[in-house]
UniProtKB/TrEMBL annotation, chain A:
Keywords: Signal. Residues 23-39 have a biased composition (Polar residues). It comes from Lacrimispora celerecrescens. It comes from the Bacteria. This is ABC transporter substrate-binding protein. Residues 40-49 have a biased composition (Basic and acidic residues). Residues 23-50 are annotated as: Disordered. The lineage of its organism: Bacteria, Bacillati, Bacillota, Clostridia, Lachnospirales. Coiled coil: none annotated.
Amino acid sequence: MRKKVVSGLLCAAMAASLIGGCSSKSAQNTQSQSGTPEATSKEAAEEKGAGSTEGKVVNIYVWNDEFKTRYEDYYASKLPAGYTVNFITTPSENNAYQNALDEALLNQANAKADDKVDMFLVEADYILKYVNSDSTIDLKDIGITDQDMSKQYNYTKEIAQDGSGAQKGISWQGCPGLYIYRRSIAKAVLGTDDPAEVQKAINDWDSFDKTAEKMKEKGYFMVSGFDDTYRTFSNNVSAPWVDGNKVVIDPNIEKWVEQTKDYTDKGYNQKTILWAAEWAAGQGPEGKVFGYFMPAWGVDFVMAGNSLEKAEADGGKQEVGNGCYGDWAATIGPESYNWGGTWICAANGTDNGDIVADIMRTICCDDATMKKIVEEKNDFVNNKTVMEELAKSDYKSQFLGGQNPLQMYCDAAAKIDMSKISPYDQGLNEELQTAMHDYFNGTVDKDTAMKNFYTAISEKYPDLKIE
Amino acid sequence: MIPFFSTYFIFSFIPLVNTFYNSLFENYRSGLTQIGPNFVGLQNYISIFQSDLLKYLGNTMILWIIGFIPQIIISLILAVWFADFRLRLKGSSFFKTIIYMPNVIMAASFAMLFFALFSDDGPMNNLLINLGILNSPFRFLATVWGTRGLIGLMNFMMWFGNTTILLMAAILGVDSSLFEAASIDGAKSLQIFTKITMPTIKPIFIYVLITSLIGGLQMFDVPQVLTNAKGSPDRTSTTLIMFLNNHLYSKNYGMAGALSVILFVITAALSLVVFFVLTGAGKRRGGK
C-alpha cells in the first residue's frame, strides 16, 4: 500500500514538473498565420535571385509598433493583392528580441516558405552583430541602388555596411537628440521659454548643474531619473565598449556615473528608471520634470502620447490643450548625441525580396513619402534634401508649441559619429544601468555595483573577458 | 509499475543523464555564432563554484524562510481551528476555498500585480501617504528587505492555503478519541496541541517542511517577474533558478547544465530525507 502511495506521489510530482517546465516558445509563432499556404512561382523573384519560389506571406520581426505604424500609414495601401504581412513582435528588453530573432534566423533554412523571416529591424546597439553575419543580404541583391540611398545621411549608411562594404541595412530615420523642455517650467524658473535663452542656461554641463539647482529650489526636477543623461555621455565615448573581447569602461561613462550619483544625492532627479510608469508620468500634465533628452522618435513616439490628459486610448487627441501637449520646446542642450535608430535588414533566404525592397524604397528613399512622415509624425527622416528643405520652410511642430526644431536636428545630425559602437552595446548598456541603479539608490558602493555589472555581463556574454 | 518506469525513463532519466553530459562541455552562442561544444571536463563546475553560487543559495534560503515561517504558523493555527469539532466554525469550507484562491492565480500575474501595487507611485504608497503614515513614497523595490519582504509575502499568500489543507487532513486523520480523552483529563488546548496534535502529525509536518523547502529551492517566477528579471537590488533577490535562467538565456548550455546538476544533488539529498521520514525506515531500525 505504502509503495503505491509513494509511486503515486512520484508520478504526480513528475507530471507537475513536466507541466511546470513547459516553455513559452510557442507564443512566438502564434502571430504568424498563413494566408495562402501554397508557394507560387514568380518571374520577378527568379530574376532578382531571391529564390525561385515565393510565398505570399511577408514576415517582419520587430520589437514595438513604431515601424508597424509607418508601414500601415505609408505602405499598406501599396501592397500587391494576395500578400499578407505579419509583424512578429518581441519586446527588446534584456536581449529578448535579439534572442527570438536569432532563433528564427538560425532556423531560416528549415522553415516553410510562409514562415521564413523576410525582413527584420535592428537598433544601433546591436546592428553590427547582424550586419557582419550571413543572416542579412546585400541590399543590391534585391535591387536597392546607391542612387536610391544618395540622399541619406552618411552615418546611417556606414553603420550598416559589413567589412567588405556591402550595404546590409537601410533606415528611414535619423536620431540626433535634443533637450526637450517644458515651456511653463522654463517660464516659472528661468523667466523665459525662448529656446535660445534656455539654451544659454544649459549650454554646457556646468551651467546645466546650476540650472538644476534652480529647478530644485522651485520644486522641480532637472531630469527624470538615473538613465536620462546616459546617451549624451555614452554616445560621445572615445572608444567602443569592447576592445577585442575585453570590456573597457570609457571615462565618459564614468562621468555619467559621477553626475547621476551627484544629482540623485542632491535631489535633482526623481529617481525613476527609463521607460517606467513614473518616468512616463513626468512627461504628463502633473509632471514636475523640466526636460528629457530625446531624439525625434522619442518626441513623436513617446512624449507626445505621454503628455496627454486624456489618453488616445480613451478617445483623446494629440492636440494643444489636451494635457501638456504643446507646452514643450526643443533646444540643443549641453552636448550633441545620437540615440537609437532603426535599420531595416532583408533576411538571407527571404522569398519576398521584391516586396521587401519596395517597402524599403517607399519608406526610406521616397522624397514625397518621407516629407509626409515629417509633417504628419514629426519624425526626423533620413533624407538630407527633405530635411533641409523643411528646416527652412514654415513647418511647425504643434507638440513643441509651434517651434520648427528641424534646423537643430539637422545640425546635430551632421555631428553624429557612430564609429564607436560594438555588437554588444544593448546588453552592456542595460546591465551597466541596472547595476548602477543600486549605487545611485545608496544600496551598495560603487565597487560592488561594478562587480555586479561584470557578473551580469559574464552571464549574458560568456565570450567577453572582464578586466 | 511498468508505465511509471517507462515514463520516468523517457521524461526524467534520459534528460538527467543528458544534463550531466552537457555540463562537461563548453557550449554557448556568441551572437549568431555557435561556440563549441568542446569538452572541458569539470571546468564549468569550477566556474560555477568560483561565481556567486553560495550567495544565490543564501538568497534562495532567506526568501524561502521569510515566506515559510509565517506560512507554517498561520497554517497550523487555521488547521487546528478548522479541524476542531468543538469550535464548530461557521463557513469553514468557504474560507478553505478562499485561502486557497491565491494559489490558483498564476505566480507571474500575481507578481505583476504586486509590482504595480508597490511601485514608487503605486496605490500602496498613495494610500500610506494619504493616511499620513508616510511623508514621501517608500521605494519598496529599491531596498533589499522591501523586495525580499514582498517576495516572502507573496509566497506566503500563495502557499498557506495549500499547507493548511495538508495539515488539516493530517489532524483529521488522528483518532478523535485521543483528543476527547485529553480534554476529559483536563488538558488545555495548548497542551493538546503540543502533546497530542504535533507528535501525531509529525510525519506529515516534516513532509510539508521538506516539500516546501524543495519548492523554495526552485523559486523563480515570483522574484523574476517582480524584479523584472534583474534580481535587484544588488542581486540580493537572485535565486538559484534565476541564476540558471541567466545562463540559459544566453544559450550557455554547459554552465546551465553544471548548475542543474548541482541543484539536482541538493534536491535529491532533501528528497531522501523525506523518504526516510515518510517510511519511518530509520526509526524502525533504531527502535525495534
